[in-house]
């Protein structure tokens, strides 16, 4: 049985000030680096991964590299694991979503920022890559470092529903086991979702 150990990146510069990042090059903070190291320790105690695959965004690259270095395993990068684009809301406070008249919290996954992506859009690009990784590594334990929106989309892909899809805090960990092309229900290993979390 294979295992996908999904990790959200450490606290980013945008997370620290509660604003959507304007660039994929936003880095993680000192706290984010500590969170990444703590995640690596948690993973080391429970699993034996052979590879880290990280989003190409700097905050995920940095987090993934810290984990890979601590575990002594290689790291690769996957552009499709990048965070949801918030389009014209880049640089705006997280709370700006609530000011958009098209936003419906009961169906938040279909909401799309102007010139951005919905979570459904994220699922469409992330799901095929996740399936490909699971197929390529059917018996391995693989760490995947990505973003809050990506992990929400992965949860929906694996469970088949958006309702109650888990968005972990920074360096939260979700385990997805798979066998013969089928996924088991995701397991939250570390990090309950904070209230009104946003901003991948």
List the helices and strands and how they pair.
Blueprint: E1 2-8, H1 13-17, H2 30-46, E2 51-55, H3 58-71, E3 75-78, H4 119-136, E4 141-146, H5 148-159, E5 173-179, E6 182-183, E7 187-190
Parallel strand pairs: 1-4, 2-3, 2-4
Antiparallel strand pairs: 1-5, 5-6, 5-7
Helix pairs in contact: 2-3, 4-5
Describe the overall structure.
It contains five helices and seven strands, in the order βααβαβαβαβββ. With 200 residues, the chain is of the alpha/beta class. It has one domain: Phosphoglycerate mutase-like (Rossmann fold, 3-Layer(aba) Sandwich), CATH 3.40.50.1240. Strands 1, 2, 3, 4, 5, 6 and 7 form a seven-stranded mixed beta sheet that branches. A hairpin with a 2-residue loop joins strand 5 (173-179) and strand 6. The protein starts with a strand and ends in a 10-residue tail after the last strand. The model is unreliable at 194-198 (pLDDT under 50).
What percentage of amino acids are in beta strands? 15-25%
Helix/sheet category: alpha/beta
CATH architecture, by name, is: 3-Layer(aba) Sandwich
**Weakly predicted, low-confidence segments:** 194-198
CATH class: Alpha Beta
Query: What name does CATH use for the topology?
Result: Rossmann fold
What order do the SSEs take from the amino end to the carboxyl end, as H and E?
A: EHHEHEHEHEEE
Biggest beta sheet summary: 7 strands, mixed
Q: Could you give me the name of the CATH homologous superfamily? A: Phosphoglycerate mutase-like
Tell how many strands the DSSP assignment holds: 7
- Give the overall average pLDDT: 95
Backbone CA Rg: 16 Å
Helix content: 25-40%
């Amino acid at each position: 049985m294979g295992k996908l150990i999904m990790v959200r990146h450490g606290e980013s510069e945008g997370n620290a000030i509660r604003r959507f990042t304007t660039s994929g090059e936003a880095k993680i903070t000192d706290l984010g680096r500590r969170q990444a190291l703590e995640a690596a320790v948690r993973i080391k105690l429970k699993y034996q991964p052979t590879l880290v695959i990280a989003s190409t965004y700097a905050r995920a690259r940095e987090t993934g590299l810290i984990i890979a270095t601590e575990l002594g395993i290689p790291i690769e990068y996957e552009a499709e694991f990048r965070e949801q684009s918030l389009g014209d809301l880049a640089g705006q406070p997280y709370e700006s979503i609530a000011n958009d008249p098209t936003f419906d919290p009961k169906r938040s996954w279909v909401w799309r920022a102007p010139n951005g992506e919905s979570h459904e859009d994220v699922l469409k690009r992330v799901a095929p890559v996740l399936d490909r990784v699971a197929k390529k590594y059917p018996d391995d334990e693989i760490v995947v470092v990505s973003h809050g929106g990506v992990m929400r989309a992965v949860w929906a892909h694996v469970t088949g529903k958006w309702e109650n899809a888990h968005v972990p805090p920074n360096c939260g960990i979700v385990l997805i086991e798979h066998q013969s092309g089928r996924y088991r229900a995701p397991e939250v290993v570390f990090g309950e979702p904070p209230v009104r979390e946003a901003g991948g």
